[in-house]
Design the sequence.
């Protein structure tokens, strides 16, 4: 992993989400965007309920998925980067009290 390997990440806990079979629908009330996570991304979302380093995630996924470790590593780095760029995951404890635009805090209500 890159320099993020030792940085614990977790999902932003204030974001409402709903499991739909093997996928998750995440609503970002800060940006009014809706994100549909596929089955693999959903597994990572579930694991990030508690803080985990990317290396810890990789170890778990290597046990659960029949894929080459190098491919898993590349896919995980890409997914974590995408989720972080959308503000859905971040380093703990930063995401525990994620702020909305303008610095205001709001609860997990739908627009």
Sequence:
């Amino acid at each position: 992993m890159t320099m993020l390997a030792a940085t614990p990440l977790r999902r932003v806990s204030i974001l409402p989400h709903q499991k739909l079979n093997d996928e998750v629908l995440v609503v970002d009330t800060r940006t009014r965007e809706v994100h549909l996570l596929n089955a693999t991304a959903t597994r990572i979302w579930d694991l990030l309920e508690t803080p985990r380093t990317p290396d810890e995630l990789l170890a778990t996924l290597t046990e659960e998925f029949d894929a080459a470790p190098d491919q898993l590593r590349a896919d995980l780095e890409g997914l974590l980067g995408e989720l972080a760029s959308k503000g859905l995951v971040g380093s703990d404890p930063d995401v525990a009290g994620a702020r909305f635009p303008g610095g205001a805090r709001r609860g997990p209500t739908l627009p």
